[in-house]
């Protein structure tokens, strides 16, 4: 799929919007000006009709118009202003000198008091005409019906319209250019944070900075914060892998030395059990470091219901542990874990396994929303508990509160690492059942 520039898309969209808007604006103004010209022409024609009527006199049943009309254009041929008077039958009884050599068609015959507008072709530009019907009462001859026609050339109006259009579209074109330049500047200013983020990412890629450091608009904060979380998580993952490899190499030195000695000196009294112990130690170290290396990663929106996982885990314990301990589950169906099911199962599995190993018969597992945005997981038993002096030590790899009990000593260390990977805390104290109570407090994403 062809990639498109966000800036070009915005500029193209704004250009189209500006073109449509200014085009419609120009058409609307043009139409409004044409309507105003037509209205002004009708008003002038009506005034010319009143001028002729004011100058005319009825003499012996005949309407007489003086030769010195106030409007001089009536007296000049092809002046662009024309007038005539007809009788009720439409016959011309007077016409202005400006009509010399021109033919005026019959035209409409309006009723007395009626005004009729029309277009006709007296000259090359065309004309607008107004016909007015009237009845004139004469004491001697009675009432006479007359029609006064006045026409005006459209040449002046067309020149005015052309000049207006030239000015209008010139200004609209200039406004469009100014608008596009302004839009381009605004767009460049608006996209500047994105360009700055790209530059910072290039600096991160070159190793010159660790995260995006600039201040960004609030609309971009979720994006930049997410990128920074990913960058920090990746950096933490690399650091964790490096530390895990270093710790693994260190933890394997002693077992490998023992195994090498057993192979080089088979008769020095080392038992087969000693070799198996060292192999188990190597296996535990490898499993622990692999689990630890995989903890530090960004979790993007996983949500796992706690109750189904806890119920399945307790059913497994009930099937495998004899005699069966008394298992108590306190968890609402609405409680969720902010990660995948596998990691929730590993957390609870290690805690419940530790509790079943030391309990006298009672285990309690609770999960609750402890305040806004916080998940609390609690596993406690009625066993001997963990002394205060040992509570921090048992969270370290390979350490056990009871050295005589079976186990590799990595379960609680894995739980602690996984809990910290979620930004949580782990505490150990004495619970209501009298034994060890281990509490995990994990923040929930907003």
From TrEMBL:
GO molecular function, one term: ATP binding
Keywords in alphabetical order: Kinase, Membrane, Phosphoprotein, Transferase, Transmembrane, Transmembrane helix, Two-component regulatory system
Pfam families the UniProt entry points to: HATPase_c
Keyword Membrane: yes
E.C. no: 2.7.13.3
Annotated Histidine kinase domain residues: 247-446
Keyword Phosphoprotein: yes
CDD domains: HisKA
Subcellular location: Membrane
Swiss-Prot/TrEMBL catalytic activity: ATP + protein L-histidine = ADP + protein N-phospho-L-histidine
Gene Ontology CC entries for this record: plasma membrane
The HAMP domain, residue ranges: 188-239
PROSITE patterns (UniProt xref): HAMP, HIS_KIN
Protein name: histidine kinase
């Amino acid at each position: 799929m062809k990639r498109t520039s966000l800036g070009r898309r915005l500029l193209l969209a704004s250009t189209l919007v500006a073109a449509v808007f200014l085009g419609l604006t120009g058409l609307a103004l043009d139409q409004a000006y044409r309507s105003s010209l037509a209205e002004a022409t009708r008003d002038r024609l009506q005034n010319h009709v009143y001028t002729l009527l004011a100058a005319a006199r009825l003499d012996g049943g005949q309407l007489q118009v003086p030769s010195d009309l106030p409007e001089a254009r009536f007296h000049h041929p092809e002046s662009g202003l024309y007038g005539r008077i007809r009788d009720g039958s439409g016959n011309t009884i007077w016409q202005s000198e400006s009509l010399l050599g021109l033919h005026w068609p019959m035209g409409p015959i309006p009723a007395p008091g009626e005004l009729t507008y029309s277009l006709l072709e007296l000259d090359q530009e065309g004309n607008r005409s107004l016909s007015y019907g009237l009845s004139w009462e004469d004491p001697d001859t009675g009432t006479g019906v007359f029609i006064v026609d006045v026409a005006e050339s459209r040449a002046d109006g067309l020149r005015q319209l052309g000049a207006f259009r030239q000015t209008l579209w010139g200004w609209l074109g200039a406004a469009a250019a100014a608008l596009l330049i302004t839009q381009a500047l605004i767009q460049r200013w608006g996209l500047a944070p994105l360009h700055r983020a790209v530059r910072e990412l290039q600096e991160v890629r070159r190793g010159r900075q660790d995260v995006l450091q600039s201040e960004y608009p609030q609309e971009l904060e979720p994006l930049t914060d997410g990128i920074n979380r990913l960058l920090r998580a990746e950096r933490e993952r690399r650091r964790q892998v490096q530390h895990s490899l270093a710790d693994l190499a260190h933890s394997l030195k002693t077992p490998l030395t023992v195994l090498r000695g057993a192979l080089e000196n088979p008769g020095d009294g080392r038992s087969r059990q000693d070799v198996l112990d060292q192999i188990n130690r190597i296996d535990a170290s490898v499993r622990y470091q692999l689990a630890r290396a995989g903890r530090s990663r960004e979790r993007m929106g996983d949500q796992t219901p706690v109750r189904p996982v806890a119920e399945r885990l307790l059913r497994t314990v009930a099937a495998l542990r004899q005699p069966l301990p008394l298992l108590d589950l306190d968890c609402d169906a609405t409680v969720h874990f902010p990660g995948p099911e596998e990691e929730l199962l590993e957390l609870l599995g290690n805690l419940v396994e530790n509790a079943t190993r030391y309990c006298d018969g009672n285990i309690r597992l609770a999960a609750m929303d402890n305040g806004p945005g916080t998940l609390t997981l609690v596993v406690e038993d009625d066993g001997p508990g963990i002394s205060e002096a040992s509570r921090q030590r048992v969270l370290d790899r390979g350490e056990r509160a009871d050295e005589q009990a079976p186990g590799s000593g990595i379960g609680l260390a894995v739980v602690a690492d996984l809990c910290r990977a979620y930004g949580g805390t782990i505490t150990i104290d004495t619970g209501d059942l009298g034994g060890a109570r281990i509490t995990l407090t994990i923040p929930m994403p907003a």
